């Protein structure tokens, strides 16, 4: 844990945020609440995106090829990238004051189990929005400045065209990717369930759902379960307040119910995909 904190502090980009007071049921989402939620989002972005300090030159080269031509990663680079994504997400957990307040065994349980659920939620979100394409994702992952810096190196301009083909299900899961067609169909339907339950243009919603997944206590062996559940409830109430501010009253309960099913759906996807790389 100490190494994670030291690595993050050394970049000088992230300052752990202090949680605000717990929201009350049915309260409106205030300007302070919105700012607080967006600060959580900035922590996530600073840890998980717009970075290249943890990428070796070969990985940067392959990612650039994906951005320019839509090519595929080698298996070796994919495995390395998987590790990078895991490490970045773990760093993000340890920067949250709520997470730091938990006993170390509970922290371990959450990272070991809920981190994979967040990855699968991210994949489902990517698949459901046509604005996400290879060039955009690579720019988000290692920083737009890095992409532009490398793209501006003189080269064969006849080959220089960014890949803007939308991300699709088969971009991540090319059939057959497992031995059972039934499992593939179920997996695709579960991914679609998540995709259709979330507005991928709503940053507040996405941040809160990630935090709800992160502090899910279901099926975990926790020493302080009440504290984890209290933290999750805080983000559930904020999401309810957010929905109440932007949707008609009759839609709020249904949208919240769908959002609260996402951790269970993401967990089922994790079980179906097993040890498959979570890129």
Structure description:
With 279 residues, this protein is mostly helical. It is built from 13 helices and no strands. It has helices at residues 2-11, 31-48, 57-69, 75-95, 97-100, 104-127, 134-142, 144-151, 169-172, 181-197, 203-214, 225-246, 249-273. Helix 2 (31-48) runs antiparallel to helix 4 (75-95) and helix 12 (225-246) packs across helix 13. The longest helix has 25 residues, at 249-273. The model is unreliable at 1-19 and 153-163 (pLDDT under 50).
Measured on Cα atoms, how large is the radius of gyration?
19 Å
- Uncertain runs are 1-19, 153-163
Kindly state the number of beta strands: 0
Mean of the pLDDT scores?
Answer: 80
User: How many angstroms does the end-to-end distance come to?
Assistant: 23 Å
Number of H/I helices = 13
Question: Can you describe this structure in just a few lines?
Answer:
By secondary structure, the chain is mostly helical.
SSE layout and pairing:
Blueprint: H1 2-11, H2 31-48, H3 57-69, H4 75-95, H5 97-100, H6 104-127, H7 134-142, H8 144-151, H9 169-172, H10 181-197, H11 203-214, H12 225-246, H13 249-273
Please tag this protein with its features.
globular; mainly alpha; 279 residues; single chain
